[in-house]
Design a protein that fits this description.
Strand content: 15-25%
CATH class of the largest domain: Alpha Beta
Order of helices and strands: HEHEEEEEHEHHHHEHHHE
Number of helices: 10
Number of strands: 9
CATH superfamily of the largest domain: Vaccinia Virus protein VP39
CATH topology of the largest domain: Rossmann fold
CATH architecture of the largest domain: 3-Layer(aba) Sandwich
Largest sheet: 7 strands, mixed
């Protein structure tokens, strides 16, 4: 199912408000594809992301992927994240909803990032985050088995073996196995940061005062063959925790501790 459709269903059931009345942020928006879908669903949607080639002032990324996509009417809705000091480019209490998909398995500053999400999220605002599980069998970016299990101590010989037998992601076709192993090692060191669910749960409670497992909601929304079978035989009690543990977790929160966070002056 499309991420925007899933969030739309969960947010509608949770907040019981029309999309047109909700201001939504896609955290880690990339090229803005999900922002476009949220706009089509009626939300006042925005996106932000951090780019290694973002210039000091206003403008587009020079070489990273959004450079060709942050154009036209949507460009005014997509903004860069300041890296140092880390800050989302929006005033306090700006959004009713913050969403993300496949972002936090990369973020090394999870505590700071979620504190910033809390800052821009209204009190009792709502969050929905899809996060690949640490115990997923095949790491979804490099396709090498058990990398997320071993992270942060992935052996060089393990990466070399799978590169030698021919495992490649979409960007590595045609590369020699030694080069693929080197690229994957660099990605493991600099591009991945896997956490267990209990670590997210603890951080969400500290930051938002709330933690919601939304995999039951995802199952209720799903209409595929697997979802229908699970619902028919009432197996959600085991299927949902297993999916969150070994494939991908759907995590939510209300911003219930917002009143305890210091509020900085709005951006000028």
């Amino acid at each position: 199912m499309a991420f925007a459709d899933l969030c739309h269903w969960i947010v509608g059931r949770s907040l019981k408000r029309e999309p047109a009345s909700l201001r939504l942020l896609d955290f880690g928006c990339g090229t803005g594809a999900n922002v476009r879908q949220f706009l089509a669903l009626g939300y006042d949607a925005y996106g932000c992301d951090i780019g290694f080639d973002w210039p000091g002032g206003e403008g587009e990324w020079v070489r990273s992927s959004p450079a060709t996509s942050w154009q036209g009417e949507i460009m005014d809705r997509l903004r860069p994240i300041a890296a140092a000091p880390y800050r989302l480019p929006f005033p306090d209490n700006s959004f009713d909803v913050v969403v993300s998909t496949s972002v936090f398995e990369h973020a090394r500053n999870k505590e700071t990032a979620f504190a910033e999400i809390s800052r821009v999220l209204k009190p009792e605002g709502f969050g929905v985050h899809l996060i690949p599980a640490k115990w997923i069998f095949s790491e979804p970016h490099v396709f090498v088995p058990m990398v997320s299990w071993m992270w942060p101590n992935v052996p060089d010989w393990w990466l070399s073996f799978w590169a030698w037998v021919g495992v490649r992601n979409q960007f590595q076709k045609g590369l020699a196995w030694r080069e693929v192993a080197r690229l994957n090692k660099d990605y493991c060191v600099n591009g991945l940061h896997y956490w267990r669910l209990r670590e997210y749960r603890a951080l969400f409670h500290r930051t938002f005062g709330d933690y919601l497992s939304l995999d039951d909601s995802r199952l209720q929304y799903g209409n595929g063959r697997v979802a229908r079978t699970i619902k028919l035989f009432r197996l959600g009690w085991i299927a949902c925790p297993l999916r969150a543990t070994f494939i991908e977790a759907c995590i939510g929160h209300h911003n219930r501790r917002k009143a305890n966070f210091p509020v900085s002056p709005p951006d000028q």
